[in-house]
Design goal:
about 325 residues; alpha+beta; Thrombin, subunit H; six-stranded antiparallel barrel; zymogen; serine protease; signal
């Protein structure tokens, strides 16, 4: 039997205090004074940010949205986490993993699919040099022999992304060095070739808060949801073109939440959606809203150019060749 939200909140809060878990957000130490005021777009807003979202007219209707897994579970073997990365600032506050703010999906060895709003702090672009991705482990706070950390070469939000209304909320991170897909710990996930049909059973995976404005877990959490029909999705505030929505009709508490943003909605080992937003987390008569991967498929493929991947791999090969030549020359002389 799954514990109530209250019990989960109390237990996780105590655990959070014991291990000094910070909020899942980008703070002033990471991005500077100008950017620190708008952390909600990529994680858990602090009290000042929550107040600003409610009172600042410049943010339109986004005061209703908390930028997104609540009601989720941890499987004994989390096979889906191999497709997911933790998107972080490029420096830790105090310990490994405390700089997580979004999720992403491995769509090639050098490209991560995420949400455009993860590439912004409010309306300000986050520099690629200030981000990194971590793959290969379900544990946010634990570095293992399978953990792969990569710096970001370029961050590409959709050119028609609108921060105020979260339209075209899709983006890409191009990595400086390729990930090493190994089938078990890191794996490339295929893009959807069609808009998912209503009723299709899917799973969202992430390190987002287990309850709205609650603590961020160490281990990735799974949430099983079903794609909703267009009529229901159209009734949700902010829903529009290029979006799909999903929920658990039997248990509304299952939903994505703060810190899950940018993570993949996966159906049959295919990425069909990217966590975008929702009115709270696990609210009755609501659903999580996701960017429709199929709708943006052409843009994703065009901007995940194989030429970039080839260039990165060639650069890596040349570096290895240079090291080999140096090694040979040392042995010869």
């Amino acid at each position: 039997m799954r514990p109530s939200k209250f019990v989960v909140c109390v237990v996780m809060a105590v655990m959070g205090m014991a291990s000094h878990w910070p909020p899942s957000s980008i703070g002033s130490d990471d991005l500077g004074k100008r950017e620190s005021a708008t952390t909600a777009a990529t994680g858990l807003p602090d009290a000042k940010m929550q107040k600003m979202l409610v009172t600042n007219p410049d943010y339109g209707n986004t005061s209703e949205f908390h930028f997104l897994i609540t009601g989720g579970y941890r499987p004994e073997t989390n096979n889906l986490v191999k497709y997911v990365v933790s998107v972080r600032t490029n420096r830790e506050r105090k310990f490994f993993g405390d700089n997580h703010f979004c999720g992403g999906a491995v769509v090639s060895s050098t490209v991560i699919l995420t949400a455009a709003h993860c590439l912004y702090s409010g309306t300000t672009r986050i520099k690629a040099s200030r981000m990194q991705v971590v793959a290969g482990t379900p544990r946010r706070l634990q570095r293992t022999g399978q953990t792969q950390v990569r710096d970001v070469h370029a961050a590409k939000p959709h050119p028609k992304y609108t921060p105020k209304r979260l339209k075209n909320d899709i983006g890409l991170l191009l990595l400086k060095k390729p990930l090493n897909p190994n089938g078990h710990f890191v794996q490339i996930i295929p893009l959807s070739t069609a808009t998912p049909q209503p009723g299709l059973k899917c799973t969202v995976v992430g390190w987002g808060t287990v309850i709205q404005f609650g603590p961020t877990p160490d281990e990735a959490v799974n949430g099983d949801v079903s794609v909703n029909d267009n009529a229901f999705c159209d009734s949700l505030e902010g829903f529009g073109k290029g979006m799909i929505c999903a929920s658990d009709a039997a248990d509304h508490e299952v939903d994505s939440c703060q810190g899950d943003s940018g993570g993949p909605l996966m159906c049959d080992n295919i990425v069909v959606g990217v966590v975008s937003f929702g009115a709270g987390c696990g609210e009755p008569n609501s659903a999580g809203v996701y960017s429709n991967v199929y709708y943006f498929r052409d843009w994703i493929k065009t901007n995940s150019s194989t030429r970039y991947e080839v260039a990165v791999n060639l650069q890596l090969l040349l570096s290895q060749l240079l090291l080999l030549l140096i090694h040979v020359s040392i042995n010869v002389y």
